[in-house]
Amino acid sequence: MLRPYITLICLFFVVLFAHAQDDKGITLSGSIQSDILIPENDKEIGTEEVRDNVLTNTYADLHLMSKYVDAGARLEYLEHPLPGFDNDFKGWGVPHFYVKGKLKNAELTLGHFYDQFGSGFIFRTYEERSLGVDNALLGGHLMLQPVKGLRLKALTGKQRRYWNYNDAWISGADVEFNLEQWIPQLAKKEIYVTLGASFVNKHESADNDQIFVDANRKLNLPENVNAWDVRASLTKGGFNILAEYAQKTQDPSYDNHYIYRKGYVAMLSASYSKKGLSALLQAKRSDNMSFRSRRKMDHTASTINHLPAFAYEHTYCLAANYLYATQPDGEWAYQAELGYAFKSKTPLGGKYGTNVKLNYSYIRGIEKNAKKTQVGPDEWISGRGSDGYGSAFWKWGGSTYYQDLNVQVDKRLTKDFKMTLLYMNQLYNMTVVEGEGGLIHSDIFVADAKYKINKNLTLRGELQYLSTKEDEGDLAFGLLELSVAPHFMFTISDEWHFDKVNVHYYMGMVTYNVGAHRIQLGYGRVSSGYNCAGGVCRFVPASKGLSISYNYNF
Questions:
Q1: Calpha distance 32→75 (Å, rounded)
Q2: What is the pLDDT of residues 273-285, one digit of tens each?
Q3: I need a labelling partner for 553 at 20 to 30 A (CA). Which of 222, 262, 300, 432 fits?
Q4: From residue 126, how far is each of 41, 144, 199, 212, 377 by CA, in Å?
Q5: pTM for the whole structure
């Protein structure tokens, strides 16, 4: 239904671009990203049967900016998407466009927009192409800074779900005060205090959904679900502390099995940093905090809010093999991190110094006690249509969802040679995160070395090993990467599943960079698994073939 707008939008940009030729105050910027796979079937690794000869996710963004007005649009070609993307993801057109007016301390955006209130507990819209997520709102967004130290936001719109929009209207407001702007004594002492509050309303008609407790009783679904959030942060020197609390009214949905319990989330985070030392402590408790613009859906695209996962986001292949996805129905999550730089010319620092980082994450379920709700003089129900359960705030329940203890050492041994060593002990509840699989305990070892051969050549190598008695058993990974400045990079790698399944996932790639252009050619296998970012995950099936990736920014 969006295709009829393409011509109109293209004409709009032609007019603006023509105007830009006569007005030096207008700038044009944009980007092109195209990821292509020419797939091959491979029974050994279990690739999905693909009928299309070429698969691609292609995006082209265009932005025009001036003193008073900005405008932009994005063309997406996803008619033959890469493996792992939902069927609803397929399509092409211009699903994202906006016009923004700016005047002094005010901005008004009409069209599509992204934003986040606080930590995102009650509202966050964003785009993450690797996950297939783009839950932008289509509507209006107003931001005001009427006085120094005060920022106000108001928004309303419908949420994008692939090539359509969910029917619910999402409206909200956010306010933030920077107290040091109002209290000079705080600024003099370099103490920075921020207070914030947010409110979000979801208005979703109950007429579209017929949910029954039994053959004779239909649920009375609330058409308005409200959520609010309060937060405070304090910064002094290298010390920062953030406290945040959010609550949501009754919101029976697919995620919570249509119960009427309210939702809650509380977080406390403290950090400290100075030269050579950093520390972080975080705790979060969430309970029934799934918040979607369509009560009967479980798609990530319909998510209104965001619950960050307090788990270290590893970038090494095997360390990221079992990534944790936040469980919105309830969890206790803790994270602690300590980083220290041993100075050069000390026993542990050596000639060039040594950096050590220790991280620990622990996530567990909350206690839940079944709770019956009275629906008649002598009639009580539990489960669907009831208040669901009770939950004592401080008590744990169920099993461990995730645990990760890792230590990383970065050490330069010579002027041209440096190394990173990582050890990780992990506990991953596959049943909780993926639906089945039991409890996976693993030990992961990583060695990453880089050697600068000369000013134009740099060689980097990785060796990784994952040891576990569960799932597919032990895995190994090796990589060699040669950088030829200023344009080329050559990479070969192999992930070997040699314990319970003897199979190699080999890959070879060539990358070329010139100016604002980057093109990468690759051939090989990709193992199945979950791709995660910020506690949001997408399953990626095994694939094989020739891959081409092109990026251009202007």
A1: 9
A2: 999 999 999 999 9
A3: 300
A4: 34, 21, 18, 34, 48
A5: 0.90
